[in-house]
Amino acid sequence: MYTLTIDESNYTCQPGETVLDALLRENINISYACKKGTCHSCMVRSTEVPPQSAQAGLKKTLQTLNYFLPCQCYPEQDMTIKLPDQSDFYRMGTVIDNTLLNRNTILLVIAFADAFEFKAGQFVNLQKSDGVTRSYSIANIPQQSNTLEFHIRRLPDGKFSAWLHDEVSVGDSIAVSEPRGHCFYLPERREQGLLLVGTGTGLAPLAGILTDALAQGHTGPIHLFHGSRDIEDLYRIDEMRQLAAQHPNFHYTSCLSGKNVPEGFAAGRVNEIALSLLPDLKSWRVFLCGHPDMVNQMKKQVFLKGVASADIYADAFLITPR
Amino acid sequence: MSATLYERIGGEAAVNAAVEVFYRKVLEDYRINRFFDNTDMDKQIAKQKAFFTMAFGGPNNYTGQDMRNAHSRLVKSGLNEEHFNAVMEHLGATLTELNVPANLIAEAAAIAESTRKDVLGQ
């Protein structure tokens, strides 16, 4: 018999009983459907490393974060479980930079007193004093200085982004949730090709993933494609070109789908340009971030080009309706 | 007792390999890919794994009713015998491509074939 701890309450998991069945018996509100390990509806996270059999079929990055399927889990030790809807723990940080990256995107840098643990490419929720939250991707890798960087685009009629753009200034305090998401780099198969495709501020998580891969000594080719309609909505073009000049295995292409395409930029949709320049993606690892239509379309396209489904990491930026 | 079809065919590893090949064939087939237009790829792959596990006679709790419920929306939008035949074609081609012996392919095809009436809501 093992003890399951959720939010400081303890429950007993009987011998031969799955974690899901134990929680349902205890009337814990947990979503589930197939109970066969197929639908992944019941997936939760543990503080301890879960039994391997309870992680079968999950993405490598989720496994690394101790996510598991309670319907397939017969505990081998006491477990502390975090349910998906359990309220986040927020920490206060201090804004140390808020400057424009382009006409509608700011660089927001938040510093913390203590180390903030995360994987480059994950996202956090920022919270306003009225309790409203929005998710933003972290754009840097863990720093000695305990800072997090964000690229925040001003959305039409977006109250939250307007607040960050117009009202938040250096020195202000801001509440930041724990990091979430499983779109990040794992330092394995370093010779594998990496394809990074993003639209707009999709560059934020991709920049973090890129920096991480380079810092961890990735040796395979790394191709970053960043796209938007107009050149005024791209940013960090010079930095990326410079990085490409410094690292022979890193290649950067900025793409514009609008009418005006100056020299040095590729004309067309970012996913189509990436696919035409890289016809064979067999055994590549792919990261897709930004507009949901691009992300979902490209997921299928790269899969059909030979990328294994387990090697496709995607972060579709959904806009929260007001 | 002799090994089950699921064991002889290679268990979970075989399922994982087969699903990748099979799902690509399905998405590229103009006869049937419209049925997959609005599906989430990751969820769909998980379902395909369950389907292959069943076709290989592996551990599953699929009931005829599950099959009926899961496909009823598609039947309403025109899913018919020809579409089912196309999927059976891809199942066979996938296993052939993975060098599964013909007698095992026949066994798996027979299990998949047994779901026809439920899938098509007949």
UniProtKB/TrEMBL annotation, chain A:
Q: Which domain of life is it from?
A: Bacteria
Q: Where is the 2Fe-2S ferredoxin-type domain?
A: 1-87
Entry's CDD domains? fer2, FNR_N-term_Iron_sulfur_binding
- Look up the record and name the cofactor or cofactors this protein needs: [2Fe-2S] cluster
Please give one Gene Ontology molecular function term for this protein: iron-sulfur cluster binding
InterPro entries membership: 2Fe-2S_ferredoxin-like_sf, 2Fe-2S_ferredoxin-type, Beta-grasp_dom_sf, Cbr1-like_FAD-bd_dom, FAD-bd_FR_type, Flavoprot_Pyr_Nucl_cyt_Rdtase, FNR_nucleotide-bd, MRET
Offer one Pfam family short name for this entry.
Answer: Fer2
The segment(s) forming the FAD-binding FR-type domain are: 88-186
Keyword Metal-binding belongs to the record: no
Sorted alphabetically, the keyword list is: Dioxygenase, Oxidoreductase
**Keyword Aminoacyl-tRNA synthetase among UniProt keywords:** no
**Which PANTHER family does this one have?**
NADH OXIDOREDUCTASE HCR, PROTEIN RFBI
- Official protein name in the record: Ferredoxin--NAD(P)(+) reductase (Naphthalene dioxygenase ferredoxin-specific)
TrEMBL record, chain B:
For the ligand (heme), the binding residues are: 71
Metal-binding listed as a keyword: yes
Gene3D superfamilies with a match to the protein in the record: Globins
The Gene Ontology terms for molecular function here are: heme binding; metal ion binding; oxygen binding; oxygen carrier activity
* Cofactors demanded by this protein: heme
Matching InterPro entries, A to Z?
Globin-like_sf, Globin/Proto, Globin_bac-like_CS, Hemoglobin_trunc, Hemoglobin_trunc_I
What detail does the entry give on cofactor binding? Answer: Binds 1 heme group per subunit.
Query: What gene codes for this chain?
Result: glbN
At the top level, the lineage of the source is Bacteria
For this chain, the family text in UniProt reads:
Belongs to the truncated hemoglobin family. Group I subfamily.
The name of this protein is Group 1 truncated hemoglobin
Range of residues in the leader sequence: none
Pfam families listed in its UniProt record = Bac_globin (PF01152)
Keyword Kinase in annotation: no
Which keywords, in A-to-Z order, does the entry hold?
Heme, Iron, Metal-binding, Oxygen transport, Transport
